[in-house]
User: What shape does this take?
Amino acid sequence: MSTPPTTDPTAIPCWTVGDVTVHRIDEVLLPPATGPWLLPDATPDVVAGQDWLRPHFADDEGVLHIDSHSFAFTVGGLRTLVDTGIGNGKERANPAWHNLNTDYLQRLTAAGFPPDSVDLVILTHLHADHVGWNTHEVDGDWVPTFPNARYITSRVEREFWAGYDMEEAREQMFRDSVIPVEEAGLLDLVDVPADGVEVVAGLRLIPTPGHTPGHIALELTSRAETALITGDCIHHPVQLAHPTIGACVDIEPEQSEASRRRLLGSLASTDTLVLGTHFAPPTAGRVVTHEGAYRLSPVPADSH
Ligand SMILES: [Zn+2]
Assistant: This one.
């Protein structure tokens, strides 16, 4: 297979948090229709009212830029991947997610994380755009992409979906991306108390329920520096200026807003590097207070 220029390891964006290098593993920029569907209250007028969103997070017409990517880093000696994107060749109702063919695994490998080397996969929640690369197709079967990893998610999250009356498309997603990992004995369910839980020295799961009942954000700490991976508690930086804006797919919208407000309040005016799970490049920044709410002060990536 020829190597496209995007797999050049010097093009893998990364940030430094103490001794840890966090790599962004790009999957795909989602199409312009994603914003109005996902965040219907983020109208062009609302977006236009926040100059700081342009040009990185929105265009001049108020179209939101929304990305799919993962984060990869080594912490406490464990090679860790946070969320696994949409995946290749998956049959999905959403046309933007259907039957993708991206070079995600080549990028992950170029960043220094070949699939066999991954020790830990953390799933912020069990939605189709966060579990896709859990598996890949081998001879017509969906098998774990990271056979030497422990995959972890919150117990509340897995148990919620176990009791959920799923439509066929969601059942399909569980069949091809979650159940094969469980059947291989690789999925660990973690109890996440209200004040969070450390799963590896330096890596903490933070309960941020609402988008889904067992949703978690992640806090990474090294040498007194801290980063926070949002998951889908915050989909887009416009929600910093308007924390009331929720996602159409939030299971409990009021709880989601409460989690978002609590998280933003804890991040405001700190040095914590916020890494947005769906934030378009530059993807990262610090939360600062702005006009009675917040904005993101971007922190551009380096390349390794
Ligand atoms: Zn998502």
